[in-house]
User: Fold this.
Amino acid sequence: MSENQSKNVEVEMNFNSSVASAVGRNDGVIIINSSEDTQALSEFVVEVEKLLRKLETENPQATDLDNFSYVDNGIPITLKERTISAIKAGGESAIDEFILENKYLKVAKSVTKAWINPS
Assistant:
């Protein structure tokens, strides 16, 4: 192949968890497929973290019940519905995949379980 010829290279990337960035060169079209379930869970994780960080500064002595209530009341109903749907579609392991290694895992899981099975 001469220096003036170009290579056509097709690359497929599959990410099974959140990706902060990917580096590479692309002179063509980039297609990003992100399921609605994945987006809902990602938004939920971001919201839970934001709410709990805010509560930590406002009330560092908050109990688990305080954390639960604060998150439950702070998440918009549309995001609650989308999160419930995503968890039902992907099972409980879906939430573990998004919040694994996250210190807010306990609160996030208990909130979503309560939304799914209110009693």
